[in-house]
């Protein structure tokens, strides 16, 4: 989370920034945001190439605007 907080702090609130990561990082961030134990990290399944948009807000709040979106892929 510290790295993401630093990235957010380096940009204006109106900037859109893409951060690319492995699914494990997304699972860890979701656990942290939801206040879940590290032991539950396997409860989230993150698809390859999925998009999980998040918005850092003033005061350190983070809004998760979507999760595991694969609408840009042709998946049957």
Task: Describe this structure as you would to a colleague.
The protein has one domain (2-64). It contains 2 helices and 2 strands; from the N terminus they run H-H-E-E. The protein has helices at residues 2-9, 23-34; strands at 54-56, 62-64. The longest helix is centred in the middle third of the chain and has 12 residues, at 23-34. The model has no long low-confidence stretch (mean pLDDT 89).
The neighbouring-strand order within the major sheet is 1-2
Kindly report how far apart the N and C termini lie. Answer: 33 Å
What is the β-strand count?
Answer: 2
Share of helix among residues? 25-40%
Question: What composes the largest sheet?
Answer: 2 strands, antiparallel
Q: Show unreliable segments.
A: none
* SS strand fraction: 5-15%
Shape: globular
Structural class: alpha+beta
Tally the structural domains: 1
């Amino acid at each position: 989370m510290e790295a993401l907080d630093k990235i957010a702090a380096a940009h204006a609130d109106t900037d859109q920034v893409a951060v690319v990561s492995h699914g494990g990082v997304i699972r860890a961030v979701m656990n942290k945001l939801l206040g879940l134990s590290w032991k539950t990290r396997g409860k989230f399944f993150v698809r390859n190439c999925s998009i999980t948009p998040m918005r850092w807000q003033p005061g350190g709040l983070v809004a998760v605007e979507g999760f595991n979106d694969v609408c840009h892929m042709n998946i049957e």
